[in-house]
Amino acid sequence: MALLKRLAEKHRATLPFTLDGQPASGLQGDTLLTAVLTAGDYLRGSDFSAEPRAGFCLMGACQDCWVKLEDGRRVRACSTLLEAGQVVSREPGRRS
Amino acid sequence: MKRKDIVIIGAGPAGIRAAQTLVAYGLQPCLIDESLRGGGQIYRRQPDNFKRSPKKLYGFEAGKAVALHSTLDRLAQDIDYRPQTLVWNAENRVLDTLTEGVADQLAYRQLIVATGATDRILPVQGWTLPGVYSLGAAQIALKFQACAIGERVVFAGSGPLLYLVAYQYAKAGAKVLAVLDGAPFSAQTRALPALIRQPLTLAKGVYYRSWLSAHGIPVHQGVQLERIEGEHRVGSVSWRSGQQTHSLDCDAVAFAHALRSETQLADLLGCAFSWSVLNRAWLPTRDSEGRSSVDGVYLAGDGAGILGADAAEMAGELAALTLLADTGHTVDTRRVATLKRKLAAIERFRHGLETAFPFPQDWAARTADNVIICRCEEVTAGDIRQTVAQGHWEINRVKAMCRVGMGRCQGRMCGLAACEIVAQSCGRELSGIGRLRGQAPIKPLPFGLETER
Q1: Which residues of B touch A51 (CB under 8 A)?
Q2: Chain B residue with minimum CA distance to A61
Q3: pLDDT tens across B215-257, in order?
């Protein structure tokens, strides 16, 4: 169930990527946040309750949209553009 | 280590105008910006393969946005412009930077800090649910990504951005269910004498408000956002109007109470801070021409007090002219006087806005113990009150004890709200509980940084 809704700019090149091991796709010019949240409804689990989070500020300040890339890097989904073939995983978080 | 004479941090309205002014006087500043494409937040640019017109993106402000962007595009060819670069530390005339995973250091003689602002957040029950965003975030989703934050959106809080973003959403075809304005209509009437000084800005605000009403979008004034509920994502929102509670099903909420300055770098640079009654915050002190208390460091734009994008353009130019004058250049003194006069007028208008959208003084008192204040560390209002009950009242001490503001965002989202809770529960003035200090790195850094020498 998508969280974000595309209102315009729908005719862009499609970029395939992998989300949590499943094939997914976004559009060229999407951030990782947009690509993930137009298909699903969360980006990470919180570090203290594992409750789902989906970002908050979209301007690189809140640090609540981190996702993990294949090489182990954690990036802010709001400020990282989607690239074809990217392998993105969402961390489940932890319960304290 | 690389050396530059003049560095500007932030390529928003203030930073771009500062760079342009320095170039006009024959200098070549280095312009550092964290984002992919400059322009700042309010004039955020869409990716270059998007096709919407500036008019669609920026409405009445399209002319200003285009002018600013084209100025940056022209400058970028002549100056050392570094997008996607985070300045994560600053001391002793050296900046630590990070560009796409590569760390570097940059020495400077003069520095213009134009770090901008983020939304000022007063948390409510349920604000960590997926589907809840800040007002600025809702606007960025639309402008930068052509997306709405949900299918059925409610806008809440206060400040000029509230009506603007709701209007932009409805205009772009999103379903806006309601606008919940914390300020009563009477406050806006009271503010009119001050607001009338900037008739154009006032007219735009009135226009957004009446456009929403004319298009059947309910606007509730003088109401308090109470809680956001849902299983794993937003399902409904409720608010209080007098003694009555109302509730509405929706799948997204955007909220904020105006803006707060990004002051971490000014703090690390050793700038003196003073209490701003207008902003309800500690701000780096700047004189009327843009000088900080530190020799060679200048402050421009919303990062040193919220005055908005128009003022930021002027303050950027003014700070650059001051820097030029301080370093022996002959500058156009009439232009300096004009900028100072215009900035003073905007500041008076800002006082009017504060009357129109007053800070909800009772927010801390009516915030229940179980409301999460710090979303990084999940520290609740009750946790903070318990810490205060143990005898702690200085905000850095409270942070050390209960971890509020200690998470990844370093208090950007929760710091001001935490201070409100502390002040309310210890019975001191908000200005009397200390100032949350900045720490390097001001944003998280990856392990295993590469360096280039």
Answers
A1: 128, 232
A2: B409
A3: 999 999 999 999 999 999 999 999 999 999 999 999 999 999 9
Query: How does strand B252-257 pair with strand B175-181?
Result: unpaired
Q: Are B353 and B187 in contact (CB under 8 A)?
A: no
Angle between helices B333-356 and B309-326 (to 10 degrees): 150
CB pairs under 8 A between A and B: 146
At position B268, the amino acid (one-letter code) is L
**Pairwise CB contact (< 8 Å): A55 & B133:** yes
pLDDT band for position B452 (cuts 50, 70, 90): low
Q: What angle do CA B254, B257, B258 make, to 5 degrees?
A: 105
CB contact under 8 A, B137 and A30: no
pLDDT tens, B30-63? 999 999 999 999 999 999 999 999 999 999 999 9
**B158 interface with A at CB cutoff 8 Å:** no
What does the pLDDT read at residue B188? 82
Report the residue of chain A nearest B252, measured CA to CA. Answer: A3
Q: Does A70 touch chain B (CB under 8 A)?
A: no
DSSP state of B303: G
Question: Chain A residues with CB inside 8 Å of B264's CB?
Answer: none
Strands B244-249 and B236-241: antiparallel
- Cβ-in-10-Å burial (0-12, 13-18, 19+) of A31 comes to buried
Tell me the sheet residues that pair with B146: none
Distance from CA of A41 to the nearest CA of B (A): 7
Give yes or no for residue B453 having a pLDDT over 60: no
B128-161: b or e for each residue (b if 16 or more CB lie within 10 Å)?
bbbbbbbbbbbbbbbbbbbbbbbbbbbbbbbbbb
- pLDDT for B73-101, tens place per residue? 999 988 999 999 999 999 889 999 999 88
Nearest CA in chain A to B136: A57
